[in-house]
Structure formats: structure tokens, C-alpha cells
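sry for the spam today, last one i promise. C-alpha cells for design, 547 residues
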């Protein structure tokens, strides 16, 4: 019985037969003329376009269209022309083709995050072009029976070619929570486990259990194990569906349940999911695709749409957190050795461009126009002086609730002084975990370290929460940690007063919190603090909460 773990990115439990997908890697010389290479590239683009039109899932369609556009990009055609200059048959065109893609590859990689994960999409275009020239047809996947798809990585073209009606679950060795596989699986509502390093151990035809919530893949599961996972999943779903209204513990202690959003449509989803407000509006997403800063008027229009979608509710907006995993082309212009430790977030005010002031002006204006209960916070604050600087600037524009994100060890260690400068705090557990553990949040190989359950992270949170309580400052959590029901209980026990998460996670956290009281939250928070590892904390708390 092989038991594999990875990152659970789409919940659900299924049992099915493994269907492996292998990519054709051409491992022999491919002779061709430059003209033939360009014709193959054109044919690949046309094929991608056809697949885009046929794709049933919107995200798959968008990615395929983007790939088709890259394959037709004049710069790529030029790059190939520059490497294959003579009108002859070259003995092996593979190096020239791969090299022509390398500039695009490096550009995407340097952007990090979501963009870096798109490097696989580029590689796929190169592979397909080579496969077409060599006559090795790309594997066409015909699923005749419901199967668990297992692959090293699933590209957009793979998923578009699959008859996903027959896909029971997706298990891939590569990828993180924002990978194409994760997005597609959530779109289809089927379980998925990514970053499952040992996925290659699974053989075609083998029967496996996949638990996409807990990131588990188990071969030849016995009936008791299947029943355990299925019952647990059903119970979690039933509990989520049963509770509505504002967040409360079973003893009526209120816990504000808010939503994270980055666009107007997210704000609409938040309202539909019964969020009590927005706990983190990530404004940099509005700036990511721009070459220049949006004008104050353009920003006012955008913020007005978001505030209108959440009319009557509190909205916590974060000022631009540009840099590192969220690079904004016109702001992050200086190459950095360590972008996560570089000039990002509020630190960009050091450049004196005035972009934050214009953003504060636009936010204040949109809030007045829409009568919104606006709260504004700054990201990547380290020191009391930075907190005071932000608070002074925000108040100048008439913003009444000013706060900071506590997402660096410095801010957590100095929470008594940092929070004294502002009205509220919000723990960014994604970055706090990355910085406390000194482990890159985007590196799937370090996912055992970038785990917010780690007692080192929880101790930092505890310190911040104790100081927030003493100062009577509301302190929320707006990182992914808030979306894990058991961890949510620990956070409340540590003194956190609100939890902000992706709208899809709200029902489950709401349902779970309604089953436990404050004393239990405090009990499990102390247990978690006393653990020696994330694994132990999770297991010990799980044992108390689920019996
Ligand atoms: C965080 O760091 O936890 C957070 C909420 O912000 P982001 O993920 O956007 O950095
Ligand atoms: Mg952050």
C-alpha cells in the first residue's frame, strides 16, 4: 500500500483507477530547414487555437489562447530566424528552438509567482513544435472510463485534450496552489493533489484513493480507510451547509468572517458567500497588467465598483503590495537579488514616486462617494516608525481606520509598539510564515516548512495577539491560514478577532466555528503552541477537535 502526500488544492474524496499521462520527449536529432521550423510553429499555434475554441473550461480556454498568441509572437519568430540563419537543412534544430524560447522563459521566471508557473506553458509550445517536426505525434489521451489522472505535470493543452467528464481526480508531481492543475480542478469541482513528488510511483491501472482536501493519495486502500475519508469529507460539507449568518462560536463569541478579494468579481463572490465584509482587498492585482500607473480618476472608478459590490459592509483595503511575488512592471524596475527581502510593499515609498499618496487619495474619494466603512492598511511594515508614517499619511486624506499588516517577524516582535501607532492589525500569515521559517512560500519543495501550523509561526502570532488584546486593537488574519477550520480555531484561541479568506472557504469555517466554544479554542491554541512541529500541532489539535 503506497501512501503519498502532496498539497491538497481542491477538496473531495474519490477512489479510482490510475491513468498516467506521459509527455513525448523527443530524444533524437530532428533535422529541418528554418522554413519547416516556422511552419511547425504556425501549425502548433493553429492547433492551440482549435483546442482553445473546443475547451469547455474558461480558464483552460484563456491559457490556450495565450499560448497560441505566444507561438505567433513576431519576437519568437525573429529569435528562431536569428539562430537558424542559412537556408539549409540543419542536422538538429532542437537546441535552436529551445534557445529561442529562453528569453521569454527568463522574463516569466523573473516575475515569480503565478507568472513563473507559466514557464511550463512555454516549454510545452517548444516541445510540441519539436514533436511536430520529428513526426512523433503528441500522445492523445482517450479516457474510456472514469480515471484518476496522474502526471508529472498537466499542461493546458493536456487538460483541454482530456475528456474531463471521465476525470475523477488529478494528481501531479509538480505545481503549487496556483498551478494550472489546481485552477482547472477547482473549476471542475474534482479533487486534486499537486506537488506530489512521488506520483511516478503510481502505476497505470492501480486503484487509488485521493483526498484533495488533505493532500493524500493512497494506493490499494482498504474499505475502512475509504469509509473514513469519505465520511469525514461528507461531515465537513454537511456542517458547512448547516450554518448561516455572522461568524460565531457555539457560546456566541463573535468572530468576524470576512473575504479576501482582488477584483470586482471577487467582491461580488464575497457578498454572495455571506461575507461580513472584505478583510483584504489586494489592490496590486489592478496594477499588475498595466504599463503605467492608473490615474486617480481611474482608481476612484475601480474602487467605487468594489465598494458598491459590498455596499453596507466594512471593506479593508491594502495599499499596493508591489514586488516579490507580485511585481508591478512600472514600479519594480530595479533587479533585486532577493526580491522577497527587497523594496516591496510600503517600502516602495522610499522611492518617493507618490504612488501610495495618489492611491490613498483615490481610496478616500471612492469611500466618501459610496458611504463605505473603509479601513486601509499597509503591507510589509517592520517598524513603529513605518506604521506611524503610514497612519499620518492615511489620516491626512481623512481615512478613519488605519492599520498595518503584521507579516514580518519584526512587526510581530514589536507588535506592542507597532500597533500602538494604528487602529488595527491584520496578520498576513503567508508572508509571516515565509519569513519566520526563512523558506520561500512559492517553493513546493519547502512546503513542509512553509506551513502556518508551525509552532514557531504560532508563537509569533501569539505574541502579536497578546499585545493587540492589551492595546484593545482588533487583530485579524488574512493569510491562507484563516481558511483551515482547525487552524482558525487555534487563531481565535490566540486572540485573533476576525478571519479573512477566499469566499469559497467561508461556509466551512463558519460551520466549524459554530460547533466549538471559546474555552476549546484557547485549549487547542495552547496545545498547538507547545508542539515541536507543524505536523504534531496539526495532529494534536485535530485529535481534540474531531475526537
Ligand atoms: C499574506 O502575506 O499572508 C497576505 C495575506 O498577503 P499576500 O499573500 O498577498 O502577500
Ligand atoms: Mg503578504
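last one done:
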Amino acid at each position: 500500500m503506497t501512501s503519498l502526500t502532496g498539497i491538497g488544492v481542491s477538496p473531495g474524496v474519490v477512489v479510482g483507477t490510475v491513468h498516467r499521462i506521459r509527455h513525448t520527449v523527443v530524444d533524437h536529432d530532428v533535422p529541418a530547414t528554418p522554413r519547416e521550423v516556422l511552419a511547425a510553429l504556425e501549425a502548433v499555434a493553429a492547433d492551440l487555437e482549435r483546442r482553445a475554441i473546443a475547451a469547455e473550461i474558461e480558464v483552460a480556454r484563456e491559457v490556450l489562447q495565450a499560448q497560441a498568441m505566444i507561438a505567433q509572437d513576431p519576437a519568437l519568430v525573429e529569435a528562431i530566424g536569428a539562430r537558424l540563419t542559412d537556408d539549409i537543412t540543419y542536422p538538429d534544430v532542437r537546441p535552436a528552438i529551445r534557445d529561442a524560447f529562453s528569453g521569454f522563459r527568463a522574463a516569466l521566471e523573473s516575475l515569480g509567482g503565478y507568472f513563473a508557473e507559466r514557464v511550463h506553458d512555454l516549454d510545452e509550445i517548444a516541445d510540441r513544435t519539436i514533436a511536430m517536426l520529428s513526426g512523433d505525434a503528441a500522445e492523445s489521451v482517450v479516457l474510456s472510463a472514469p480515471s484518476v489522472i496522474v502526471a508529472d505535470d498537466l499542461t493546458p493543452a493536456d487538460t483541454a485534450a482530456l475528456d474531463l467528464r471521465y476525470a475523477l481526480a488529478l494528481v501531479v508531481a509538480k505545481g503549487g496552489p496556483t498551478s494550472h492543475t489546481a485552477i482547472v480542478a477547482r473549476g471542475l469541482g474534482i479533487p486534486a493533489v499537486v506537488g506530489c513528488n512521488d506520483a511516478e510511483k503510481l502505476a497505470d491501472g492501480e486503484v487509488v484513493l485521493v483526498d484533495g482536501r488533505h493532500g493524500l493519495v493512497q494506493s490499494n486502500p482498504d474499505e475502512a480507510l475509504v469509509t473514513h475519508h469519505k465520511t469525514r469529507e461528507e461531515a465537513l460539507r454537511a456542517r458547512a451547509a448547516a450554518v448561516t449568518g455572522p461568524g460565531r462560536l457555539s457560546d456566541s463569541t463573535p468572530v468576524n468572517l470576512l473575504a479576501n478579494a482582488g477584483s470586482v468579481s471577487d467582491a461580488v463572490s464575497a457578498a454572495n458567500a455571506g461575507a461580513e465584509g472584505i478583510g483584504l482587498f489586494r489592490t496590486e492585482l489592478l496594477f499588475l497588467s498595466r504599463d503605467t500607473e492608473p490615474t486617480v480618476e481611474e482608481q476612484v472608478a475601480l474602487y467605487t465598483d468594489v465598494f458598491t459590490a459590498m455596499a453596507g459592509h466594512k471593506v479593508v483595503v491594502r495599499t499596493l503590495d508591489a514586488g516579490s511575488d507580485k511585481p508591478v512592471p512600472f514600479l519594480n524596475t530595479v533587479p533585486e537579488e532577493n526580491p522577497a527581502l527587497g523594496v516591496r510593499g510600503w517600502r516602495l515609498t522610499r522611492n518617493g514616486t507618490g504612488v501610495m499618496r495618489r492611491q490613498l487619495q483615490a481610496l478616500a474619494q471612492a469611500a466618501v462617494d459610496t458611504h463605505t466603512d473603509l479601513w486601509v492598511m499597509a503591507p510589509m511594515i517592520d517598524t513603529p516608525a513605518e506604521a506611524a508614517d503610514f497612519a499620518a499619511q492615511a489620516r491626512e486624506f481623512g481615512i478613519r481606520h488605519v492599520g498595518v499588516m503584521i507579516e514580518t517577524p519584526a512587526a510581530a516582535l514589536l507588535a506592542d509598539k507597532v500597533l500602538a501607532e494604528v487602529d488595527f492589525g491584520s496578520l498576513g500569515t503567508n508572508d509571516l510564515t515565509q519569513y519566520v521559517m526563512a523558506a520561500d512560500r512559492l517553493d513546493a519543495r519547502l512546503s513542509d516548512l512553509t506551513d502556518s501550523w508551525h509552532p514557531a509561526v504560532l508563537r509569533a502570532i501569539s505574541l502579536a495577539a497578546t499585545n493587540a488584546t492589551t492595546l484593545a486593537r482588533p487583530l485579524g488574519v488574512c493569510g491562507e491560514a484563516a481558511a483551515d477550520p482547525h487552524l482558525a480555531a487555534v487563531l481565535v484561541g490566540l486572540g485573533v478577532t476576525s478571519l479573512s479568506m477566499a469566499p469559497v472557504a467561508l461556509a466551512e469555517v463558519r460551520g466549524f466555528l459554530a460547533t466549538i466554544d471559546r474555552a476549546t479554542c484557547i485549549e487547542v491554541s495552547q496545545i498547538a503552541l507547545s508542539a515541536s512541529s507543524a505536523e504534531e500541532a496539526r495532529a494534536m489539535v485535530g485529535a481534540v477537535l474531531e475526537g
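The first strand starts at residue 3 and ends at 5. ok im logging off now
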